[in-house]
Queue: 4 jobs
Job 1
Amino acid sequence: MKRFLSLVFAVAAIGIFSFSAIAQRNVTPAIDRDPLMEADAKHNLDVAWQGFAPGKKAYKQVILRFDETFAAYPDFSKIDEFLYLAGMSSYYLSENKGKQKLDLKSEKEKKRFAPEKLKEDARVYLGMIVQKYPESKYFEEAKKTLELIPKE
């Protein structure tokens, strides 16, 4: 009889502790991610990283990949990483760094890649990381770079 009561008590205790653990669980709804869009965005992110690499410095390419991805799929699971690449690429291009030269005589390029526009974009992208993704591994660098960009 004592064994039976011990067993009942143990089962009851496990049930109570399990219920309290479930009740404490974060109940934020998960974002329903489209696997095809995730795969496409991941491909664009990989290509952007290749363009961002120290030997390549194709910052214009990175920004164009980001624009395409962000317009089509802003809920990408690694959007903080993409925001970092776009923000840093915008900042570097605004400082005339990188291997891809800009044709600011072209109205389309001037509108998208003027240094003032690039600085503003860098502030927006890096600011989004600081505001929306404080747990991101890019948070600290985004914050530091934001301090370097002059406000106009």
Job 2
Amino acid sequence: MRRTVVMVLGIFIVMGIWFSTPAFAAITSSAEDAIAQESYDKRKPTLDIANKAAAKKGATLESLSKACGPMVVRIGSVLSGQAPLEKKLQKCLEDQLDLSSGTLNPLNAPPVRWNIGSIYRIHEATDVYAPAIQRWMNEHFGDTIMSAISFTVEVEEGKSHGQKTIRIIYEGKALGYSDDAYWTKE
């Protein structure tokens, strides 16, 4: 018995190491990853132009920050393709990097990011509040879960305490777990 447990644990450890290797980490695993990659691929040629121009001029994030105003991290996020480039900053960067007007236009649109903040927050909200939601479901429906097969999601704009809010409504069939009657032989 002990040998079987050790063998099973060994298999899980090997699988964990195998699936966490860089080769597997590079695999596109979701539509989100594919959309983020496409967004980055569209921005990359312009990012290359801007970053090569900065290197050629010896411009650092700090020098660009001092010249253009936004903090170092904001300049860095724009020049790494992770933040949209606003017009005022665009003009300053193009001037500082000796680029033609409009060269940085492809960086104006908001990028699609890996591990998008809103997706992360939806996961976080689920992690934090799911136990309370499950408790409520059990109080109202007994030993049950919510179906994600017979399921819809609605997103609405709301308002709370004078602030714009986002309301996400999950609606799925209440699926009860099997009870004792199911677990008896006929």
Job 3
Amino acid sequence: MPQIVTNLWFDTQALEAAEFYCSVFPNSGIDVVTDYTDVGPGPAGTPVTVDFHLDGTRFTAINGGPVFTFSEAISLLVECADQAEVDHYWDALSAGGEVQQCGWLKDRYGLSWQVVPAQLAELMADPDPARASRGMAAMLSMQKIDLAALLAAVEGDG
């Protein structure tokens, strides 16, 4: 079966971004850096692609120039085991970026991330519509997801 690898287009910061992402996630690293040659189109000796992995998931970052930029139309979801993980990834990825609603943020490179507790999908799909509605209302009022507040809202205590 073929492997699907997400490619991320940067202007000139592919290596810097890959190194940053590898510093945030455990079991991560740079695998291969390919440089432009004298035929271009970038300056010879500068990175054109950076193959890296984040905790076992492969990515390629490309320095393709300013032609394309990131938008919220695609994001990377980080499902966290607990509030400590939510706090860690939220703080690291949002540093120098922009926080948004419902666990969304843009990092310093403009890439959108969703940093959420793993329980979020289950809470939003609660078979009791009142519980699900309270959970949704609580989530919509948050930037970084507060798991305790979300659980309290679902239970009707928030």
Job 4
Amino acid sequence: MLERRRGIVFNSAMDFIWLLIGYLFGSASSAIIVCRVLGHGDPRSEGSGNPGTTNVLRLYGKTAAALTFFGDVAKGIIPVLACTQLGFEPSTIALAGTGAFLGHLYPIFFRFEGGKGVATLVGVLLAFNPWLGLAFMASWITVALATRYSSVAALSATALAPIFAHLFGAELAVVSAVAGMAALVYWRHQSNIRNLLAGRESKIGKS
């Protein structure tokens, strides 16, 4: 019984540690860092106020947006991949990814003012299973080309993500984590949903 309890305590401690590691990685806001390095303004105070790829693209162009996107994807990949390579259980790996995602949404280094989570979710999904991440991106691209709305593409791909995770044979902990992150993506896109319903949402390529 004592050994069993020690095992539970150890697993709980490692789960918390990897959740924290993921969160700290996610808290490195790529949009803010890239804009500062390139001499641009703070994306939180301009445009839509969202420190994410779409707002950076509209404000400062393709180079800044591409760097922002790849930075956000990388911070989702790194903690999950590290946790996986070290041989931890799927539940711990799922928490590492969830931590990175939460860090992006609520970064401790930037007054908890983060983005909407889509690019970091892409990174987490790629690290969970490359096919899962690719399916998400393929869905995003397909809907974006059809509608020209970044938000519609993001919401559509996000809705499919838990289904893809299940179809690709992910463990229950991973599927549950993906579903939870998907719900938070929708929560963070409330303003976009209202704008879409009111016909005010900006299309891709428009300022």
